[in-house]
Amino acid sequence: MDAKHILIFGAGSVGKRHARNLAALGCRISCMDVREDRCQELAQEVDAERFTDECEALAASRYDGVVVGSPPYVHVRQSIAALKAGIPVLLEKPVAPDLEGARRLAAAVEGASAPLLMGYTWRWWPPLRKIRALLGAGVIGPIQHVQFHMSAHLADWHPWERYQDFFMARREMGGGALLDESHWIDLMLWLFGMPSRVSGRIEKISDLEIDSDDNVDLLFAYDDGPRVSMHLDLYGRPHEKFIRFVGSHGTLYWSTDPNQIRIGRGWQQDWDIMTYDCERNDMFVGVAKEFLDVIAGEPPATCAIEDGVRVLEIVETARRASREERVMSLGPSS
Question: Where are the domains of the chain?
Answer without folding.
Answer: 5-122+283-301, 126-277+312-329
